[in-house]
Amino acid sequence: MIKLAPSILSADFARLLEDVKKVESAGCEYLHIDVMDGHFVPNITLGPGIVKSLRKDVNMVFDAHLMIENPNNYIKDFVDAGCDIIVVHQEACKHLHRTIQNIKSYGIKAGVSLNPATPIETIKHVIQDLDMVLIMTVNPGFGGQSFIESMIPKIKELKEFIDKNDLTVDIQVDGGIKPDNVAEVVKAGANVIVAGSAIFNSDDIPTTVELFRNNSNL
Ligand SMILES: O=C(CO)[C@@H](O)[C@H](O)COP(=O)(O)O
Ligand SMILES: [Co+2]
């Protein structure tokens, strides 16, 4: 069974709560919150204040994808805002082990994200502490980009590593995932599917969500 995580980057920020309620009532499990600082990635999005406001009216699992420099300095703010999972980028953490422990010290789930060019090898010594690994299937920064096909063997490699070492770690994929390629990533081993433009730009969100689920049933 996959978990669907619509990315709010493609929501209408002027109608954010209204849009989020649409994906919640369509049965999506996670709300994927893309936080960008204009340094780690060129784009700027939102901070913990907006997350805190949404938290009051939304019951989905809040999955924060921090695309920011020095994420360790902001973990507490996002925990206090109500995040359930915090994902940091391997490339943004000088002391990745410390940041993972910091996230877990608040009793929430910790994840690490890998840019397309970053090998699985770089998280080999911390993966036993993780709840989720995020394989970026586009270069981070923007919604609506094309899926990078060469990430399929990377997802498979991660899945094999997890199974071989008897770990319980979710594999999240993010970027360019649509109803017509979801089967491919699920077959490779992904079980948490981020989709921004495919869901929020759809005229019929419940039908699109159903299509994602039907197509991922292998
Ligand atoms: O983290 C990011 C982009 O950096 C993503 O979460 C995107 O927002 C996904 O959008 P689509 O590619 O599904 O439109
Ligand atoms: Co994201």
Automatic annotation (TrEMBL):
<feature type="binding site">
    <location>
        <position position="176"/>
    </location>
    <ligand>
        <name>substrate</name>
    </ligand>
</feature>
<dbReference type="GO" id="GO:0046872">
    <property type="term" value="F:metal ion binding"/>
</dbReference>
<feature type="binding site">
    <location>
        <begin position="141"/>
        <end position="144"/>
    </location>
    <ligand>
        <name>substrate</name>
    </ligand>
</feature>
<dbReference type="GO" id="GO:0004750">
    <property type="term" value="F:D-ribulose-phosphate 3-epimerase activity"/>
</dbReference>
<keyword id="KW-0119">Carbohydrate metabolism</keyword>
<feature type="binding site">
    <location>
        <begin position="196"/>
        <end position="197"/>
    </location>
    <ligand>
        <name>substrate</name>
    </ligand>
</feature>
<comment type="pathway">
    <text>Carbohydrate degradation.</text>
</comment>
<dbReference type="GO" id="GO:0006098">
    <property type="term" value="P:pentose-phosphate shunt"/>
</dbReference>
<keyword id="KW-0464">Manganese</keyword>
<comment type="function">
    <text>Catalyzes the reversible epimerization of D-ribulose 5-phosphate to D-xylulose 5-phosphate.</text>
</comment>
<feature type="binding site">
    <location>
        <position position="174"/>
    </location>
    <ligand>
        <name>a divalent metal cation</name>
    </ligand>
</feature>
<dbReference type="InterPro" id="IPR011060">
    <property type="entry name" value="RibuloseP-bd_barrel"/>
</dbReference>
<feature type="active site" description="Proton acceptor">
    <location>
        <position position="34"/>
    </location>
</feature>
<dbReference type="InterPro" id="IPR013785">
    <property type="entry name" value="Aldolase_TIM"/>
</dbReference>
<feature type="binding site">
    <location>
        <position position="7"/>
    </location>
    <ligand>
        <name>substrate</name>
    </ligand>
</feature>
<feature type="binding site">
    <location>
        <position position="65"/>
    </location>
    <ligand>
        <name>a divalent metal cation</name>
    </ligand>
</feature>
<comment type="similarity">
    <text>Belongs to the ribulose-phosphate 3-epimerase family.</text>
</comment>
<keyword id="KW-0862">Zinc</keyword>
<keyword id="KW-0479">Metal-binding</keyword>
<dbReference type="GO" id="GO:0019323">
    <property type="term" value="P:pentose catabolic process"/>
</dbReference>
<feature type="binding site">
    <location>
        <position position="32"/>
    </location>
    <ligand>
        <name>a divalent metal cation</name>
    </ligand>
</feature>
<keyword id="KW-0413">Isomerase</keyword>
<feature type="binding site">
    <location>
        <position position="65"/>
    </location>
    <ligand>
        <name>substrate</name>
    </ligand>
</feature>
<dbReference type="Pfam" id="PF00834">
    <property type="entry name" value="Ribul_P_3_epim"/>
</dbReference>
<dbReference type="InterPro" id="IPR026019">
    <property type="entry name" value="Ribul_P_3_epim"/>
</dbReference>
<dbReference type="InterPro" id="IPR000056">
    <property type="entry name" value="Ribul_P_3_epim-like"/>
</dbReference>
<protein>
    <recommendedName>
        <fullName>Ribulose-phosphate 3-epimerase</fullName>
        <ecNumber>5.1.3.1</ecNumber>
    </recommendedName>
</protein>
<dbReference type="GO" id="GO:0005737">
    <property type="term" value="C:cytoplasm"/>
</dbReference>
<feature type="active site" description="Proton donor">
    <location>
        <position position="174"/>
    </location>
</feature>
<feature type="binding site">
    <location>
        <begin position="174"/>
        <end position="176"/>
    </location>
    <ligand>
        <name>substrate</name>
    </ligand>
</feature>
<keyword id="KW-0170">Cobalt</keyword>
<feature type="binding site">
    <location>
        <position position="34"/>
    </location>
    <ligand>
        <name>a divalent metal cation</name>
    </ligand>
</feature>
